[in-house]
Amino acid sequence: MSAYIVVEIEVLDQESYETYKQLVSPSLAAFGGRYIVRGGAVETLEGGWSPKRVVILEFPSATRAKAWWDSAEYAEAKALRRSVARTRMFLVEGESGSERGNLDGPRQSSSSA
């Protein structure tokens, strides 16, 4: 089952954050991670939450996501991020590939048997 790390980021030092972005990508790939969202425009639709920057990462599993977050490969980038940005981050499990995109439950067969 896929897992997602959702990150709210307030960048305090843009130049150093650019260095962070270069460091993090190889560590993600090593754990099967990829960007789903990487800092696009944010529009609040409901509530008082108004993040300045949002990143969403996808991993093959929660185990792989947590292994990446706690890895030696990510340690240098993580330390840099913590020094140049304020972040809030959480992990959420997603749907399996066969369930993704089907919000109404299992499809009903149109054929009569």
Short description:
By secondary structure, the chain is of the alpha+beta class. It has a single domain, classed as Alpha-Beta Plaits (2-Layer Sandwich).
Fold blueprint:
Blueprint: E1 3-11, H1 14-30, E2 34-38, E3 53-59, H2 62-69, H3 72-84, E4 85-93
Antiparallel strand pairs: 1-3, 1-4, 2-3
Describe the structure.
With 113 residues, the chain is of the alpha+beta class. The protein has one domain: Alpha-Beta Plaits. It has helices spanning 14-30, 62-69, 72-84; strands spanning 3-11, 34-38, 53-59, 85-93. A 4-stranded antiparallel sheet has the order 2-3-1-4. Helix 1 packs antiparallel against helix 3. The longest helix is centred in the first third of the chain and has 17 residues, at 14-30.
Unreliable sequence segments: 107-113
CATH topology-level name? Alpha-Beta Plaits
How many beta-strand segments?
A: 4
Supply Rg: 17 Å
Descriptive tags:
Alpha-Beta Plaits, 3 helices, four-stranded antiparallel beta sheet, alpha+beta, globular, 113 residues
